[in-house]
Design goal:
Strand order of the largest sheet: 1-2
Strand content: under 5%
Number of helices: 6
Radius of gyration: 24 Å
Structural class: mainly alpha
Length: 130
């Protein structure tokens, strides 16, 4: 199938398909005599897999490493990369929880002290993240 048909089937812009090709994530199976790219029948599924992996947080470099030329994933590599991403997400969640707690504490201080004391000193004392 040509790039336009692949774009319609996969719901992905032709420029993105060309970019994925440049990045080594997708390769045309051949070219027509006039130079048009021809893609395999499984190319829409491969593009959807790439898109899903991106949404999960995998980089294009990691995705390229996970996929073989037939579009199949290495379960071992995918498990290893999933564990790495899960650790990163957990670290981000912990950082967000600390930020959330600090913001709640600041809001409480501002509510409690705002009507009674000047706010400038209160803000300076409590604009720290734990």
């Amino acid at each position: 199938m040509k790039i336009g048909e692949l774009s319609r089937k996969a719901g992905i812009a032709t420029s993105a398909i060309r970019y994925y090709e440049e990045q080594g994530l997708l390769a045309p199976t051949s070219r027509t005599p006039s130079g048009y790219r021809e893609y395999a029948d499984n190319a829409p599924e491969r593009l959807q897999l790439i898109q899903t992996a991106k949404k999960l947080g995998f980089s294009l470099e990691v995705i390229r490493d996970l996929l073989d030329l037939n579009g199949k994933c290495s379960i071992e590599k995918t498990m290893r990369q999933t564990s790495i991403l899960l650790q990163e997400v957990e670290q981000q969640q912990a950082a967000l929880a600390r930020q959330h707690a600090s913001l709640l504490a600041l809001r409480t201080v501002l509510i409690d002290h705002g009507a009674v004391h000047p706010v400038e000193g209160v803000c300076a004392e409590h604009f720290t993240l734990n």
